[in-house]
């Protein structure tokens, strides 16, 4: 199946993000457009300050754009300056986030960190624990379910973070420098994990990264510079 024939998981058109006004206005992102399909894994490269994180938090509805159109799994969520849905509720249901640090809650066990994502969406304790265990088994950390985050390696923490991001069956996973704190071997394992998740779960994955050592796992590579985006490479992996 080619990318063109897969469902569009996320569509962004002419996204612009401005801070300040008048003489103090800063344009952090300008007229950025991008489409990512279900089961596609995308890398977003670029130097610090190029707008990568601004773009990721904009399409992730954490820090919405000043203007532009965003649709997720065919549902419009932003149109111009108008918010068409409750962004917080929509984000919890449809978007999973992974950051440079795993951001696991230190006083909860690994499995409780995965469960809490579902419980915030109203899932019951028994059902959330069952899915959390299934996800942790799928990601190879089920044997660490009852460990506190401090007892996990960096790679294990990121796997738990991926499980948490998958908990509510999102259409899209957004990852911001998820391997920055890992060595080359563990970093590649995490990147390959994203490809596995995209291929087997049908989830679109966008990864902001400076790590060029594992770019071969990605279907498509974009680059950002000065707040604009361009296609660097489009392959046929996982088709």
Folded structure, characterized:
By secondary structure, this protein is α/β, with parallel strands linked by helices. The protein has helices at residues 52-59, 87-94, 110-119, 125-138, 154-166, 184-201; strands at residues 8-19, 26-37, 41-45, 67-72, 75-79, 82-83, 95-98, 172-176, 204-208, 220-225, 228-234. The strands form two sheets. It has a six-stranded mixed β-sheet with strand order 7-8-9-3-10-11, with helices on both faces. The protein has a five-stranded antiparallel β-sheet with strand order 2-1-4-5-6, with helices on one face. Strand 8, helix 6 and strand 9 form a beta-alpha-beta unit. It is globular and about 55 Å long.
Short description:
The protein has 239 residues and is of the alpha/beta class.
Annotation, overall tally of beta strands: 11
Specify the helix fraction band: 25-40%
Q: Based on CA inertia axes, which overall geometry fits? A: globular
Given helix and strand content, the structural type is alpha/beta
Main sheet record? 6 strands, mixed
Average pLDDT figure:
89
What's the order of the H and E elements?
A: EEEHEEEHEHHHEHEEE
End-to-end CA span? 5 Å
The number of distinct helices, counting runs of at least 4 residues, comes to 6
């Amino acid at each position: 199946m080619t990318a063109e024939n897969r469902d569009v998981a996320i569509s962004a058109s002419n996204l612009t993000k401005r801070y300040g006004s008048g003489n103090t206005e800063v344009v952090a992102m300008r007229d950025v457009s991008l489409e990512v399909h279900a089961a596609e894994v995308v890398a977003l490269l670029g130097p610090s300050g190029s707008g990568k994180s601004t773009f990721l938090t904009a399409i992730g509805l954490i820090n919405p754009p000043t203007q532009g159109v965003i649709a997720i799994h065919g549902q419009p969520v932003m149109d111009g300056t108008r918010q068409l849905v409750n962004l917080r509720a929509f984000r919890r249901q449809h978007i999973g986030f992974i950051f440079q640090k795993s951001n696991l809650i230190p006083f909860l066990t690994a499995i409780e960190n995965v469960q809490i994502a579902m419980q915030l969406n109203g899932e019951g304790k028994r059902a959330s624990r069952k899915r959390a265990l299934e996800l942790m088994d799928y990601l190879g950390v089920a044997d660490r379910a009852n460990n506190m985050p401090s007892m996990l390696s960096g790679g294990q923490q990121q796997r738990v973070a991926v499980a948490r991001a998958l908990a509510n069956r999102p259409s899209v996973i957004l990852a911001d420098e998820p391997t920055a704190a890992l060595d080359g071997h563990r970093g590649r394992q995490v990147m390959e994990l994203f490809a596995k998740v995209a291929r087997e779960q049908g989830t679109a994955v966008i990864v902001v990264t400076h790590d060029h050592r594992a770019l071969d796992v990605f279907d498509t590579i974009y680059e950002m510079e000065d707040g604009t985006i361009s296609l660097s490479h489009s392959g046929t992996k996982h088709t």
